[in-house]
């Protein structure tokens, strides 16, 4: 394309100012709702793995080993995410973002409801964890295709100078999904005994997913693809060679993929330590009720839901890199404070640990959608953003709970410093990646090396 990366769009919605079918508010709302449903389903598994899956699906192991095995199936969901990113990205760059988002949401909902209906090990033996694994793989595949499409629907429809703000709303769908998942579990824990929850209560939040998915599908079906994408698709139709997004993004944007992966490390690892591992830490290592940490996570998710759009807007003013660097350094330092506050089991200190951790995380996560969208050209943007984002998840979020529990060691001699060093190391790598990236705030999305080379 002939447009440079420093140009500016003039319309808030590319189909024209005030375009009703594709108004930016409607698009952002649809992206937020769909993303929240997807991540409600995904986080629900992580919380259930920490609370009950070790006992129900791996009963022959001791509690910590059983939880490790449950987190093993949890991690496999991350392994499937890059595959989902590649396949959904490929077709999203070829046939459109909207269609693939609908498919992703449907698959996620089907897998989550299926988990809620699964018989346990006590009923069908080894087939139970195998079926759980299959459902988790489908979840990972679906969420791998969700993120790139959702953020691009917002990024490609808004003004260049407001992209950080609008693109941050799909990001806010993540804490909203976590808020919903944690909230449902908190309500169940409040009204049910531990034995009742383990017997059948844990199934309720998974089955509730069917209602949320229906709402998300209804909203997403009314969307249209952006004018930026339509222009790129029309230009590609005049090119003789076949359009193979994964090959083209690897050939034209290898540096950007590496930068995106590096930027994900501290962000992704810190989030799962602060929201998932902490549940297991309180339950198994401190031998305490999870009520105090679930309450803190509930408040923290609500705080982050409102914080992310505010920081997204700030990134439009001061740039993506300053916020990202501050967040990366912040989580690296906070990791050394976090576990000491959790050890107190005091509601105020636990809340402080979670909220400050999520604040530093948000400094990275809020500008991330716009940042990643601006790194890649339109014809491979879905694939490039998804691959960079999801491939890093294998080395970051997927392994974070497993590595953290291994580093913590035995419950009687827990080694929290080792986990803090692990997080700090990831922070250093993320800082290097951000320093290697150019500032992209305010740049146009009408750029594409693939089309220029063709």
UniProtKB/TrEMBL annotation:
Any single Pfam family the record assigns to this protein: Sugar_tr
Question: In which organism is this protein found?
Answer: metagenome
Q: Which protein are we looking at?
A: Putative MFS transporter
Where is it localised?
Answer: Cell membrane
The record's annotation in Gene3D superfamilies points to: MFS general substrate transporter like domains (1.20.1250.20)
Q: What keywords would UniProt list here? A: Cell membrane, Membrane, Transmembrane, Transmembrane helix, Transport
- GO-annotated molecular function: transmembrane transporter activity
Domain Major facilitator superfamily (MFS) profile residues, every copy? 27-441
- UniProt topology in membrane: Multi-pass membrane protein
Where does it sit, as one GO cellular component term?
A: plasma membrane
Q: Which ranges does the record mark as transmembrane? A: 39-58, 64-88, 100-124, 176-193, 199-219, 292-311, 323-342, 348-366, 387-405, 417-437
- Tell me, in one coarse class, where this protein mainly resides: membrane
């Amino acid at each position: 394309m002939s447009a440079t990366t420093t140009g500016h769009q003039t319309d808030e919605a590319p189909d024209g100012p005030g375009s009703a079918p594709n108004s930016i508010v409607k698009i952002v709302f649809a992206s937020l709702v769909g993303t929240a449903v997807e991540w409600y389903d995904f986080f629900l598994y992580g919380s259930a793995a920490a609370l009950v899956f070790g006992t129900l699906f791996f009963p022959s192991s001791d509690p910590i080993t059983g939880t490790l095995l449950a987190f093993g199936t949890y991690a496999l969901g991350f392994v499937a995410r890059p595959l989902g990113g590649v396949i959904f990205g490929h077709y999203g760059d070829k046939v459109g973002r909207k269609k693939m988002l609908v498919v992703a949401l449907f698959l996620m909902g089907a897998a989550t409801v299926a988990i809620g209906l699964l018989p346990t090990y006590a009923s069908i033996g080894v087939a139970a964890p195998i079926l759980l694994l299959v459902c988790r793989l489908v979840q990972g595949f679906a969420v791998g295709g969700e993120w790139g499409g959702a953020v691009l629907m917002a990024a490609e429809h808004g003004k260049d100078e407001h992209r950080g703000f609008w693109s941050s709303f799909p990001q806010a769908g993540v804490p909203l999904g976590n808020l919903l998942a944690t909230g449902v579990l908190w309500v169940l824990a409040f009204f049910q005994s531990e034995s009742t929850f383990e017997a059948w209560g844990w199934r309720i939040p998974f089955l509730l997913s069917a209602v949320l998915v229906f709402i998300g599908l209804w909203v997403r079906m009314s969307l249209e693809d952006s004018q930026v994408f339509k222009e790129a698709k029309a230009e590609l139709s005049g090119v003789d060679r076949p359009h193979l997004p994964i090959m083209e993004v690897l050939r034209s944007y290898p540096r950007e993929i590496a930068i995106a992966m590096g930027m994900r490390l501290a962000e992704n690892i810190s989030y799962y330590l602060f929201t998932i591992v902490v549940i297991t830490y309180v339950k198994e290592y401190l031998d305490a009720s999870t009520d105090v940490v679930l309450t803190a996570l509930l408040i923290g998710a609500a705080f982050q839901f409102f914080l992310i759009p505010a920081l997204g807007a700030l990134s439009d003013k001061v740039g993506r890199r300053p916020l990202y660097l501050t967040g990366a350094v912040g989580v690296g330092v906070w990791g050394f404070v976090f576990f000491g506050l959790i050890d107190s089991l005091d509601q105020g200190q636990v809340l402080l640990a979670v909220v400050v951790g999520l604040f530093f995380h948000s400094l990275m996560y809020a500008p991330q959608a716009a940042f990643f969208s601006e790194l890649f050209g339109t014809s491979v943007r879905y694939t490039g953003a998804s691959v960079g984002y999801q491939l890093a998840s294998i080395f970051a979020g997927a392994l974070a709970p497993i590595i953290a529990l291994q580093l913590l060691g035995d419950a009687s001699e827990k080694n929290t410093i080792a986990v803090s060093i692990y997080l700090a190391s990831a922070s250093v790598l993320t800082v290097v990646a951000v320093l290697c990236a150019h500032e992209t705030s305010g740049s146009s999305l009408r750029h594409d090396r693939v089309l220029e080379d063709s």
